[in-house]
Amino acid sequence: MTDEQRPSPLSTSPPEIWRPARRAAQALSRPIERFLHVEAASGILLILAAAIALVWANSPWHGGYEGLWHTPLSISLGEWQMEHDLHFWINDLLMTVFFLLAGLEIKRELVHGALSDIRRAALPVLAAIGGMLVPAAIFIALNTGGAGIGGWGVPMATDIAFAVGILTLLGKRVHPSLRVLLLAFAIIDDVGAILVIAIFYSSGIALVGLEVAAAGLLIALIFLWIGVRPGIIFTVPLLIMWGGLLHAGIHPTIAGVALGLVIPARSWYGPTGFMLTAQRALEEFQRRVAEGHHDHDLLAPLGEIETAQREAVPPGIRLEAALHPWVAFGIMPLFALANAGVNVRGLDFAVPGASTVLLGVALGLLLGKPIGVLLLSWLSVRLRLSVLPQGVSWGGMVVMGFAGGIGFTMAIFISELAYRGSELLDMAKLGVLAATCAAGMIAYVGGRWILRPPPAALAHEDLTETVAEVEALWTVDGTPDT
């Protein structure tokens, strides 16, 4: 082989770039990439967005804050036109993507995760039920007969991003099993919140809208039956379902959950199929290169590798990974910015039900969540309906209970549904924000005091186990696999 034929070392940059511009772009992007790879980064961004909203709403420019979210935006096609304010498009359309991600996470847990086995799922399911019923009971006890009774669903919800962020800040003190348990608990909590929204916070049902939504779901299923893989084309059935549910009187974000639950959670090729297909395609690629084929002839084996790479993991996992950055770093902070701006100076405690709504939400999240989680968890273990996962203590369950009291995104979302257009809305939001801050601080401080890091001999080992490895430790009888 001559020097001209010998392949040159691969360059780290495309051949057409201007190197100074490339270096400048890398210098600007590296800090952003490092931030985005921090596990708690999305929670930090949420806090920042909420803080900006609160400061803005209580500043001399608070009129600009309220005016921004009431800016009318319209979509038109020919003579058809749909006009709503910016707040609607964020809460009712963009949040559909958030709920799509929630649906994908629920499907994954049902097929592969902690919810795939009845005995393993018993503890997080019962903990979540307790964490929903007790907060609702506290709120109802304080608001029975009052004007704000309709907000009983507000303190039932847990914010996954914030709750996981707290455990991340605790570092190696948190056993991997506790992290998995919290994820399962929070996902079941989301299921409960979604059901509450669909059943109790929807207006009168219009059958025509339901029929349209069902047609959209059927289109999605037909796509899957004929082999269409999830991608941008699934926006069509999603929008049809969204429009149908909106017309039916059911909150349209439920369309995201419905689509997420039908996306396949099992892979087509799998790791073994990927390796076999890729190896065969690489050999074909190498043969064509050796025979001097044109570049166009190389596309076929490259296409096989691309298909194998795409189908090595389940479509739901791939879609979840693609949506997560957009939801965590775009949609959720925007939602927080649009909804967390409570004008404290404008609060009127003389409004009937104002004080009890504030207390009901705050106490429901801050006290009801940990009490409900611990009570039903203890009863389920005592009655042998479940067992604590290996490495999880009752102290860890206390930390998880207070982390569950971090309501934020879902709780504010339900507040908007329960008190839309009411003077009690800001009271409910203030209760959510106050309880979220307090529960987060208690979970963090309590975690540092209660949870113990691993022994010094293990401190230098890599303790970041995968979910699969953690679940292998979490057996039905509570003893590790051998």
Short description:
This protein is an all-alpha fold. It has helices spanning 19-36, 41-57, 62-69, 86-111, 118-143, 160-169, 176-200, 207-225, 235-248, 254-262, 270-290, 299-310, 315-339, 354-382, 394-404, 408-418, 425-450, 456-459, 467-473; strands at residues 72-77, 80-85.
Core attributes:
2% strand, mainly alpha, two-stranded antiparallel sheet, single chain
SSE inventory with pairings:
Layout: H1 19-36, H2 41-57, H3 62-69, E1 72-77, E2 80-85, H4 86-111, H5 118-143, H6 160-169, H7 176-200, H8 207-225, H9 235-248, H10 254-262, H11 270-290, H12 299-310, H13 315-339, H14 354-382, H15 394-404, H16 408-418, H17 425-450, H18 456-459, H19 467-473
Antiparallel strand pairs: 1-2
Explained architecture:
By secondary structure, the protein is mainly α. It has 19 helices and two strands. It has a two-stranded antiparallel sheet. Helix 6 (160-169) packs parallel to helix 17 (425-450). The longest helix has 29 residues, at 354-382. It is globular and about 85 Å long. The N and C termini lie far apart (54 Å).
Element-by-element helix/strand order: HHHEEHHHHHHHHHHHHHHHH
Spatial separation of the terminal alpha carbons: 54 Å
Helix content estimate:
55-70%
Structural class category: mainly alpha
Rg value: 25 Å
Question: How large is the count of helical segments?
Answer: 19
